[in-house]
Amino acid sequence: MPLPAIGQGTWFMGDDPGLRQQEVSALQAGLEQGLRVIDTAEMYADGGAEEVVGEALRGRRDRAFLVSKVYPWNASEVDAVEACERSLRRLNTDRLDLYLLHWRGNIPLEETIRAMELLQQQGKIRHWGVSNFDVDDLEELWQEPGGTGCATNQVLYHLASRGIEYDLLPDCQQREIPIMAYCPLAQAGRLRQTLFSHPLVVESAQQLNISVAQLLLAWAIRRDGVIAIPKASSVAHVRDNAAALEVTLHDEVLMALNQAFPPPQHKLTLDVV
Fold first, then answer.
1. What predicted TM-score, i.e. pTM, was given to this entire model?
2. Exposed/middle/buried for 174, CB within 10 Å: 0-12, 13-18, 19+?
3. H-state helical runs in 75-167
4. 182-197 confidence digits (pLDDT tens)
């Protein structure tokens, strides 16, 4: 079954016990809206986000495409298996649909690939991939034995951060590796506030009778092979995000956004949060 182009992120979930039930309800509401991809990591709230996801998926595991990520220092052949098993316990499941190397570290890629293949053989993960890999990193990965088994690359991507469009996105499309766009609504802080209050962005959303978040999500998934994973810790936000799947941005809107936020004309350093 094809995955929807919008999923659910969990960064910052699990930090505040007082918000736990709200976060669980939001994830469950997302599943009801068809947002099957749920992305988490052992890093988020030191495993707390995985526990929130595990609670949300109780009795619903088969309805989700479950993604988690391993620290780079846990990506050795032995440590990755142990890290994955800890994640599975927190998630209260026997398998992950996708397991990602969170970012590149000092452990050789060849060893991490072997670890991922072992986890596949053990039935603990279905697919594996990477996160925060630029073109050179992917090329090196591709040259390693088994490297072509990489199923995705998760990177930062939103209207105000378009660097991947110059080389990384075309490269992944050529290799038929989907991009998972994290922070598609811009990371917290000044940049998010600037983007959400930008006159053209606000005006474009109003003209289409949609929210700014829906505009930004529709923009992020306008290309084939891109899945956006916004975090939404309330049922209302989840429903708002899901509605973006039905939004079509006309050429006039896209041209105006391109003028305000031009695509890159040269290689840029990969944005990372």
1. 0.96
2. exposed
3. 79-91, 109-121, 135-143
4. 999 997 667 778 899 9
pLDDT (tens digit per residue) in 94-123 = 999 999 999 999 999 999 999 999 999 999
CA dihedral 169, 256, 35, 183 (to 10 degrees): 60
Query: From the candidates 44, 99, 157, 182, which is the catalytic residue?
Result: 44
| 99 assigned to active site | no
Cα separation, 242 vs 34, whole angstroms: 8
| Three-class DSSP category at 64 | coil
Give ∠ CA 19-23-29 in degrees, rounded to 5: 145
Burial 71-92, CB ≥16 within 10 A → b, else e: bbebbbbebbbebbeebbebbe
